[in-house]
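Practice record 12: protein with adenosine-5'-triphosphate.
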Amino acid sequence: MELVIEGVSKKYKGDSYGLRDLSLQIGTGVLGLLGPNGAGKSTLMRILSTITKPTAGKISWNGVDITKDPNAIRRILGYLPQDFGVYPHLNAVEFLEYLASIRGLEPAIARKRIDELLHLVNLYEVRKKPLNSLSGGMKQRVGIAQALLNDPKLLIVDEPTVGLDPEERIRFRNLLSELSGERIVMLSTHIVSDVESTATDIAIVNQGKLVIQATPSELLAAAVGKVWEWVLPGPAWMEIRNQLLISSTVQGSDGVRIRVIADAQPSAESRLVNPTLEDAYLYFISAHKQLATV
Ligand SMILES: Nc1ncnc2c1ncn2[C@@H]1O[C@H](COP(=O)(O)OP(=O)(O)OP(=O)(O)O)[C@@H](O)[C@H]1O
């Protein structure tokens, strides 16, 4: 199973670009597509789900060019868009039966599949409740269930954890991880912790371009020797906060513990610490922004 994206660009009207010459090679597992707002994540996902076409480049699924033969990917695709909406007065069973019929599933097969999916996404107990009475996380799990109706080989989920509380976010992450065994799952997000424990591969995008595609451990390794911590008294911290790339700050009784990404030691008191994936992400995004402004 392989999805290959080669030199894909999307130029919108008025000379704005959603993607610029982006290439990725994606195999079975969870690919975390990570980037700030406006990086081009939704544009890529909309292209892969054949809602929109690239203005340049090629995408192939197991060797078949999907820009020429969109049905080749539609048959194996499950998609949860960022702005997924439900019919509020239907319950989960009615909603999924409705979507299954639109997608041409045989009613008997659909009923069996919907039953399995409701168990899988842990919504069986609430399957008869109107969708507008469910929590945000439950609605997102209905969204995943509809994306899985045709047992897709390629599952695309666009910023699925926006608006979820921490507990629901963790549950949703674990669900995606469980689903990745026999398929490619592409998960877009701007929240590093969404992909930290689940992604087998991470692609960082910024300003429509690929910054890097690597495994989480490769990203962490690249940030070793670049993350520093030390404690600063309050006023001193105010002075330097705009001059350094700050990963986090924690207020303590002795001052502010500051965590900084820098190639060289930023202060005599600072000491090197082990990077987190969040540090690595900041490091790559910042290096990319600097390159773009040179
Ligand atoms: N229909 C459109 N017309 C013009 N420009 C667009 C259109 N859709 C997206 N863009 C631009 O393309 C760029 C990438 O947008 P996109 O929505 O793909 O980013 P994103 O990474 O998904 O961000 P977000 O997390 O905010 O959704 C942005 O600069 C955006 O303004």
